[in-house]
Amino acid sequence: MPLSAFDEMTGVQESGPSPSGPSPSGPSPAEVREAYAALKTWLDTTPPEHFDTRRSQAELFFRRIGITFAVYGDNESTERLIPFDIIPRVLTKPEWGFLERGLKQRVTALNMFLADIYGPQECIKAGIIPGDLVYRNPHYRLEMRDFEVPHGKYVHIAGIDIVRTGEDQFFVLEDNARTPSGVSYMLENREVMLRLFPELFSKHRVSPVEAYPDALLATLRSLAPMSAARDPTVVLLTPGRFNSAFYEHSFLADKLGVDLVEASDLFTKDDVVYMRTTEGPRRVDVIYRRIDDDFLDPLVFRPDSVLGVPGLMSAYQSGSVTLANAVGTGIADDKAVYSYMPEIVRFFTGEEPILHNVPTWRCREKDALSYVLANLGDLVVKEVNGSGGYGMLVGPHATKREIEEFGRKLRHAPDGFIAQPTLALSTCPTFVASGVAPRHVDLRPFVLSGADDIRIVPGGLTRVALKEGSLVVNSSQGGGTKDTWVLDG
């Protein structure tokens, strides 16, 4: 395997697809980025059977502690392990500093945008974003119009997906502002690596991620209503054990030291939320909810929901409880809204975007639709409300029939799609069945917005497309995860 195939390790763009092969060796260490130099030596000098043993131990660890995710519609199994790759992804301190500045700017703009579209709507009046894109969006909640959310923050926990190209440029692939998941894997991946490869950590100064639960709890506490007690009660609201991310819900509740509750554990009285306890009702001040808007309150949204708490929205709008994230943040996840983020950042912050979008064609626009239809075989086409790698076309990997079918979808409902070029995504060394091979990766850092500050632990969830040549990193589509190292110095 030529060393240049691993462009995150060398900074050299991969010129074309490379077959799987053994661990890289031979080229001069000068070709390796300084951040990867010790890792390269480790890969070259470690016997392959050591990797096999450690990978088996990692899988055993994950099985014992129950790190699984559910796959809806999967007839073979209701739960799976997310594959874990034992070779970490490495970022330098300057690279992380750049990402951190860009993430803070972007999440600040997202919060200002949400406050505006549910308030004065200056961005619509100024023509920054089309009004119909907001008003007709299924995630735009009229119930939130002119409601001042606690401390003026809508997105308290954001997961911003970042990709890096072979040319060493970072781009935002999408924003996750509703109920972003995956932080438990970031934390557990680090714990596994510390257990299995202590000798590797002794050769690197890796910034810790273990402070995330403390940072999250501090963020949630800071968002408590002004009427809350000095020691506000925080709970994590889950749909229950059949939810695909239930492991993460229980994991985070345990790490935060807060109660994990379902709808039946809560009730409202006089516009105040209470939790049932063995010692009687206890007032709740902050709800970290992992339930989508539609299911939060059957009196306001879906009347058939058994996952929500009747009266919750009334209590929320009375100001007696904080919901994290706020109701109505899902519009920021919309991929058509995403395409306007450069303009949104400039309008609300007065600054040029630090992190750029992937170039995007809005199929709702006539000229863009014509271009996309003529070039479907070269583009990635996504549903504006899609997620998890579903509802998309990867043109270069699609069959002629799939391209024709997607073309019909676009002509029928162009407003529901955007298109992007197939970027030359960077590759990291990844341990696969035949040895060490390049695989495409992305990164999901987690951004916490409290009442007065923004916190980001140095790292995030690196997702890896384990199938050779694949650009889809989602776990539901066969992707795996890696530990993400930000070097401190």
TrEMBL record:
Renumbered residue ranges of the record's region Disordered: 1-30
Annotated coiled-coil segments of the chain: none
Residue intervals of the Circularly permuted ATP-grasp type domain: 88-465
SUPFAM superfamilies according to UniProt: Glutathione synthetase ATP-binding domain-like (SSF56059)
Pfam families: CP_ATPgrasp_2
InterPro entries for the chain: ATP-dep_Glu-Cys_Ligase-2, CP_ATPgrasp_2, UCP005522
Protein name (database record): Circularly permuted ATP-grasp type 2 domain-containing protein
Gene source species: Methylobacterium tarhaniae
Organism phylogeny: Bacteria, Pseudomonadati, Pseudomonadota, Alphaproteobacteria, Hyphomicrobiales
